[in-house]
Amino acid sequence: MLKRIRDDIRSVFDRDPAARNTFEVLTTYPGLHAILWYRVSHWLWEKGLKWLSRFISALARWLTGIEIHPAATIGERFFIDHGMGVVIGETAIIGDDCTIYHGVTLGGTSWNEGKRHPTLGNRVVVGAGAKVLGPIEIGDDARIGSNAVVIKPVPAGQTVVGIPGRVVETNLSEKEKRRQKMAQKIGFDAYGVSQNVEDPVEKAIYSLLDHVQSQDEQLELLNKQVQRLGGEDTHVDLPSLEDAVLEPGDPEQQAHIKSEMDRDKS
Fold first, then answer.
1. Has residue 7 got a pLDDT over 70?
2. Which of 14-23, 139-148, 189-198 ranks highest by mean pLDDT?
3. Distance between CA atoms of 232 and 125, rounded to whole angstroms?
4. Close Cβ partners of 10 (under 8 Å, ≥ 6 residues apart)
């Protein structure tokens, strides 16, 4: 247990550039305090002293704002950054070199006994405010974006964002790839996401708009060919997709939409 405690202290220096010396880390880092209390309470839990371990866990929660059930299984070099509002449930399992931020919940979705909480692999990063719920598995090197709500398993190496959580693609420049390699080397990836992550919902909407625009152009060309062959002009004025760039809730936009709907009805 002492080796794990030393590794927990060392992990703070590896993942927080603000850490300056051991005395400062030992006296001012509530995330580390919570882990140290957890190591003690977990040891007592395994020895069968469950009330005492729960009491120490409750005391640690009052002092740090971080709630870790003593029955949870946490690997080596675990780092909680900032930490306020973190909740780790009884049957949660966390691998080695994991990092979580403030407001994270590793919670359950059932009142039934047995495995109710998530399992995190090695080197997982869970961003601030994220909720990982139920007996699901989060693969090694996965990233959970800030405020995501994850209720399904996440494959190894994937990044998840949104509510409900969904896997996103990453388009990384060479500079970002170098940063990612360095982050993996030191076990750090701030808040689990980068600026070059593509939201699949946003991507799908833009793809749909592109498809609609292409269809309009093809129909216009078809209409011209029909006119050349002696047919009637079937052209219909449609609202321009460019009008959608107006700010939501803008009075001009609302008036425009209402006029278009009235014209369609007539």
1. yes
2. 139-148
3. 62
4. 77
Q: What is the pLDDT of residues 203-216, one digit of tens each?
A: 556 566 667 777 77
Q: What's the CA gap between 64 and 56, in Å, rounded?
A: 12
Encoded tokens for 222: 């078809």
Q: How many CB atoms lie within 10 A of CB 134?
A: 17
Full-model pTM: 0.62
> Taken in order 207, 130, 125, 179, is the CA torsion positive or negative?
positive
Of 262, 257, 235, 258, whose CA–CA distance to 244 is shortest?
257
Residue 199 burial by CB count (10 A; 0-12/13-18/19+): exposed, middle or buried? middle
Give the position of tokens 């059932």: 110
How far is it, in rounded angstroms, from Cα 17 to Cα 13? 7
Which amino acid belongs to residue 180? Answer: Q
Instruction: Output the CA torsion 225→228→232→236 (10° steps).
Output: 40
